[in-house]
Design brief:
Helix content: 10-25%
Strand content: 35-45%
Mean pLDDT: 90
Low-confidence stretches: 1-41
Strand order of the largest sheet: 1-24-23-22-21
Structural class: mainly beta
């Protein structure tokens, strides 16, 4: 009995000491962040919010490896939820009518029947659903990947893989020798698809790009030539895209198929994502990931605003300590109406908002985990978007966290306090 009593005393003492140590560590951690703009106080959910300087609205995101799309308020409370028909491909976005357009993964049976490859950024099924998750439109092509764009005429531009002709493979330069995918090199194709599923316009890389001028990054495999990750259709119909493996972004002339403008290359960009024009000047906002960044000892991410006319960088965001902001893959950014910028740092599951001076005024860490291929269970988010309270798609919709009180008990603001 005495031995048991002594054991209890020892355990209580250790517990007390552990609590004191944990309390000290917590105080040190809080103090360490006291002079920063982020000032995170918990591991997940909203870690910091400056209501006076952040752009108020609702943030949409879909965790990779999961089959959910979430809409949260500034406090991190869930106000809307859609269940996908399959695990998330890249991401989803809201249309002006409030419908959700998203891409999810094609089934293994669909991929096998089409003889589609298993490569990064895979999607295969694009679905449009209404606010109540009722199916409005669906398009299936197991070769689709990364991005898509709903056009003003109701058609949808999609990005997909195709295998370049065998006689063209040897012309493609760069990459690690003998690393083709099943003796094939996959390239990028854009298809414009009608609501009825008919392809009315198509563009293939090898028909318009000189392989000698577009070499693969020397540290990448030769499984893919371009690795396109962006499908942004501009107001004039031209396509602004990003070829990750080539460290370049470019504009495809919709009428001729020619590359009419390009920027980047090894040492200029590094496996970038999501170039798109931003108001009021039409500059291009680019998430420059930094993987395989040339002429640098360490990899780091940055966000740049590029003037497409003179190709000068007019604004840049990077962390005070470069390596504190880094996502080797995916990611995006969005310029907000108040001039701030929303940033999605995929591989940390981190979505945050910065001022033009680079001050963090809102930060959210995704609490949802999903299994993503060889990476295991991760809380990655491919892209995120903020919608203001006056967004036309919210008219007549209920955005009430009480409707999702049980979800918010698990994943809302209070769950991580």
């Amino acid at each position: 009995m005495r031995a048991k009593k002594n054991l209890i005393i020892v355990l209580l003492t250790l517990g007390l000491l552990g609590g004191l140590i944990f309390s000290s560590i917590t105080q040190l951690t809080t103090a360490a962040y006291a002079d920063t703009n982020a000032a995170p106080t918990k591991q997940f959910g909203v870690t910091y919010w400056d209501p006076a300087r952040a752009f108020s609205g609702y943030t949409l995101y879909s965790p990779l490896g999961c089959d959910d799309v979430w809409l949260i308020d500034m406090q991190g409370r869930i106000v809307q939820h859609w269940k996908m028909s399959a695990k998330s491909g890249p991401y989803g976005k809201l249309l002006p009518n409030g419908n959700l357009l998203y891409q999810c993964l094609a089934s293994e049976e669909q991929k096998k029947a089409a003889d589609a490859p298993t490569l990064s950024g895979q999607g295969g099924v694009i679905r449009e659903v209404d606010w109540n998750n009722n199916l409005v439109w669906e398009y299936v092509d197991p070769f689709m990947h990364h991005d898509f764009c709903r056009l003003k005429n109701g058609n949808t531009m999609v990005l997909k893989y195709y295998a370049v002709p065998s006689e063209f493979m040897d012309k493609i330069e760069g990459g690690i020798p003998e690393t083709e995918h099943d003796n094939k090199i996959w390239a990028d194709q854009f298809d414009e698809v009608t609501p009825e599923g008919k392809v009315v316009w198509s563009w293939k890389s090898h028909e318009h790009m000189d392989p000698k001028e577009w070499p693969i990054c020397p540290l990448d495999t030769r499984a893919e030539w371009n690795h396109g990750n962006t499908c942004y259709v501009m107001d004039n119909g031209d396509i602004l895209t990003s070829f990750r493996n080539l460290h370049k972004i470019c504009i495809i002339d919709k009428k001729t198929g020619d590359i009419k403008w390009e920027y980047g290359g090894l040492g200029v960009l590094a496996h970038q994502h999501d170039p798109h024009p931003v108001p009021p000047n039409g500059n291009f906002l680019i998430f420059d990931n930094g993987q395989h960044r040339a002429l640098n000892e360490v990899n780091y991410s940055r966000l740049i605003e590029l003037n497409p006319k003179n190709k000068e960088i007019e604004w840049e965001y990077r962390a005070p300590v470069n390596m504190d902001f880094f996502s080797a893959a995916c990611s995006n950014a969005q310029r907000l109406p108040n001039g701030n910028t929303l940033i999605c740092e995929t591989m940390k599951g981190r979505i945050f908002e910065v001022t033009p001076k680079g001050e963090i005024v809102w930060e959210f860490i995704n609490p949802h985990f999903g299994v993503v291929g060889p990476f295991g269970s991760v809380n990655w988010v491919f892209r995120a978007y903020r919608y203001g309270p006056d967004f036309e798609g919210f008219k007549g919709k209920t955005l009430d966290p009480e409707k999702f009180q049980y979800w918010n008990v698990l994943y809302g603001t209070d769950a991580f306090n």
